[in-house]
Request: fold
Amino acid sequence: MDRKKFIKSAILTGVAGVIAPQVLNANKDESHKSTYDKLMQQVGFNHLPNKNIETMNTVIHKAATRGHANHGWLNSHHTFSFANYHNPERMNFGVLRVLNDDTVAAGMGFGTHPHDNMEIVSIPLTGDLEHKDSMGNITVIKEGDVQAMSAGTGVTHSEYNKNKDKEVKFLQIWIFPKEKNVTPKYDQISIKDLEKENEFYQVVSPNKDDQGVWINQDAWFHIGKFSTETATAYQIKKEGNGVYAFILEGEAEINNEKLSRRDGMGIWNTTSIEIKANKDAQILLMEVPMMK
Reply:
């Protein structure tokens, strides 16, 4: 499938609901409205990262260059084009379509809205996020948890800040699925017991019997906290995959590129990457297929 057909197919089937989450209390008609026309205005056809800013097999997205939207109740930074932020050179990294850094005000949240054919991973950074969905799940995820939802044939859900007195901050990550129209599923785990000092530990996997939550895509996520001057390496798990690294806190070098808090860097056409913490750092690695 060529790039144009892939993006069009994914938008038709996989990104419903991108507008609805902007509304706190979306009504039934609005939350089910087709978003194809709106999204096609935002989507370009460069499936791989911007070639104008790549160095060999890398692309760097500095934190200050991200899209930004402050709705009062929601303050969101977008690594890739999302909603009203559109940059045709920053549409996706392989099948990684959305990486939003969200802060939700006390007691506020995303009203009920639909998704289908999308893998959605949420990683709380601080606070408590309440999740309700049409599969009957009512849960709260907090710092130290990871949540994954395979939207498959279709699901509706809402997400609210559980607390009335403090913000909740979390990463919202969307990935195009490996197979479409699967039965929707939900998974949530605590990763506190998985943490290892100065090592990456796996939090997302394509295998249900493996460590972490499992999703419908050949993707692996790892998180690590590293003290200053610690060096390590990450080995690509599947040939053809790339890795998008996101610096959650601190400063680090990845393949000798210096990165700071909330900077992102994509690497592909390699079998491993080298990481060094220049200051105490927390890093998220997202290994994903570069093609559907």
